[in-house]
Design brief:
single chain, about 575 residues, alpha/beta, Rossmann fold, Luciferase, domain 3, GMP Synthetase, Chain A, domain 3, nine-stranded mixed beta sheet, five-stranded antiparallel beta sheet, 16 helices, AMP-bd_C, ligase, lipid metabolism, ANL_N_sf
Length: about 575
């Protein structure tokens, strides 16, 4: 069986604690040391720091838990509808301490995501919504048109409660529901137990070299995203780390804010999707770089989409003069169904890069070549096991063969909330001979090459035309090589036509491009045809900022495809 096992054991993975009980333990040990900082940039360019010590955070979480225990029962859902803030953390941990099932969501004002919020609330049917006074009116207005009628509590308006002892939770009870993006289907809530969450938080601490009191996390990732939640709350609770948060919009407005926060946080660990590193390299000025000191950064995690070698090089070149060391780049792979983290590149050295023959890779075989598709290793599993399997039969593929990535470990969730169809994804045979557990089918394609995992794409994103497989990221990179295309703006996908599947590329025109639309389209068709042997059915050129993205700024191929098929892009097309 072609599996990869973790390189080191995970310490303490069998603890019966919860994130909230760990908070109580750290509050007794670290007391008045700062646990949590939110850099609020709404009224200040440089950000106003709002902080809570470990003791203050513990007391506020206890206050929320006491309020919840009077209006909800153990196992009820408590949805968090708030902006990025210390209050979000208080609300989330308060729900867990009270024995409720936390549901990390977002404030109703998040642009373009009202439908997702409505669907998630209808799915989990919360008995209570936790928010803040700043978001209270918007929450009430939103719920007025919702089929759910929960109690609404503003966590920052609660009077302090008397301290009390809280019972230890059942480690196999549900801690929270992590809702998937819902870009291609109704959002599904992954059921994560206390055991799952603590296992993955500790796997992350081990993998990224966490040391209590000396390591901290810095994150602008939304707390309702799997990586943002574990980086901003889970790992700090497991590892006794201070956490620094900022709003995603603050990062997008001025990416140097993220890097300045890293500079001010010795021993920092942070994470971002691939696009964010290229965004920083192109948007941070030389004057802004003069304020940066990045030599003390411990790990910069690059994950949640294909990691591009050119992006790593561009970011390293841009900030090497600020002390950034090449070995801090940690390429990772993960997904919500496994809490988040699955594998990570080795510490202490740059992630390995291998160039594979493009045609052979599309045919399902990883064959090194002088030119073709260069992939960045996502390393080895973090306290779990990875299997490459035939996506139809589930049988292990031969070494060096591309297949579906499957995962087995204590961090893998129990299924999707209220969905019997979960059995088609979770706990699949054959049973892992080491653990006796089944496998999680990730829907991602990958290959194990010389003991390391390389992610090649997603099953649902493959562009299959005339019987040949094409990875969309390869097409997108070819399109973005033209100087008339805005970097990191292309989405390639397949559509059905009367003559079979056909390929479409949607992209944004570069702001300062002088190329005409007809000239640009012809050049892109020629480049894709020459590089991939693929004729494009359509090329849609949009103004900057018009390609559909996720809430963290990544291009969403699924939303692009849906908008294209719905005709929503027609009126925005240039030319």
């Amino acid at each position: 069986m072609d599996t990869i096992s973790p390189p080191v054991p995970v310490i303490g993975a069998e603890s019966t604690a919860s994130l909230a009980t760990l908070l109580g333990q750290w509050a007794r040990v670290l007391g008045d040391e700062v646990a949590l900082t939110h850099l609020d940039h709404r009224d200040s360019v440089d950000g106003r720091a709002v902080t809570l010590t470990w003791r203050e955070l513990d007391e506020r979480v206890g206050t929320v838990a006491a309020r919840l225990s009077g209006i909800a029962a153990a196992g009820d859902r408590a949805a968090v509808l708030a902006g990025q803030s210390v209050d979000y953390v208080v609300a989330f941990l308060g729900a867990i301490r009270a024995g409720l099932i936390a549901v990390p969501l977002f404030a109703p004002g998040l642009p373009g995501h009202a439908g997702r919020l409505t669907a998630a609330l209808a799915d989990c049917a919360p008995s209570v919504v936790l928010t803040t006074t700043a978001d209270l009116d918007d929450v009430h207005s939103f719920l007025a048109d919702s089929p759910v009628r929960p109690d609404v509590v503003a966590v920052d308006a609660l009077a302090p409660a008397e301290p009390r002892d809280w019972p230890a939770p059942d480690p196999d009870a549900t801690a929270y529901l992590q809702y998937t993006s819902g870009s291609t289907r109704t959002p599904a809530g992954v059921v994560l137990t206390h055991r799952n969450v603590l296992a993955n938080a500790r796997q992350a601490c081990t993998a990224y070299g966490v040391e209590p009191r000396t390591t901290s996390t810095v994150s602008w990732l939304p707390l309702f995203h799997d990586m943002g939640l574990i980086l901003g709350i889970g790992a700090p609770m497991a590892g006794g780390m201070a956490s620094v948060l900022m709003d995603p919009l603050a990062f997008l407005e001025r990416p140097s804010r993220w890097l300045r926060a890293l500079s001010a946080s010795p021993g920092a660990i942070s994470a971002a999707p691939n696009f964010a590193y290229a965004y920083c390299a192109s948007r941070v000025s030389e004057a802004e770089k003069s304020y940066l000191e990045l030599s003390r950064v411990v790990s910069l995690i690059n994950g949640s989409e294909p990691v591009l070698p050119a992006t790593i090089a561009k970011f390293q070149d841009a900030f090497a003069g600020c002390g950034l060391r090449p070995e801090v780049h940690r390429s990772s792979y993960g997904l919500a169904e496994a809490t988040v983290l699955v594998s990570v590149s080795d510490a202490g050295k740059p992630a390995r890069q291998v160039t594979f023959d493009r045609d052979r890779l599309a045919a399902g075989f990883a064959v090194p070549a002088a030119s073709g598709s260069t992939l960045v290793s996502c390393g080895r599993p973090a306290g779990q096991r990875v299997l490459i399997a035939d996506p139809v039969s589930g049988e292990p593929v031969e070494p060096g063969e591309v297949g579906e990535i499957r995962v087995s470990g204590p961090n893998v969730g129990r299924g999707y909330w209220g969905r019997t169809a979960s059995s088609a994804t979770f706990g699949l045979p054959p049973l892992d001979p080491e653990t006796g557990a089944g496998w999680l089918a990730t829907g991602d394609l990958g290959v194990v090459f010389e003991g390391e995992l390389y992610v090649t794409g997603r099953l649902k994103d493959l562009v299959v035309v005339d019987g040949r497989n094409h990875y969309p990221q390869d097409i997108e990179q070819t399109a973005e090589a033209h100087d008339g295309v805005r970097p990191h703006s292309a989405a390639a996908f397949a559509i059905g036509t009367g003559e079979g599947e056909a390929a479409v590329v949607v992209l944004e025109r570069a702001k300062d491009s002088s190329a005409g639309i007809a000239e640009l389209t012809a050049a892109l068709r020629a480049a894709v045809s020459a590089g991939h042997g693929l004729g494009l059915h359509d090329v849609v050129v949009l103004p900057p900022g018009e390609v559909p993205r996720t809430s963290s700024g990544k291009i969403s191929r699924a939303r692009c495809r849906k908008s294209y098929l719905d005709g929503a892009l027609t009126g925005r097309r240039l030319g």
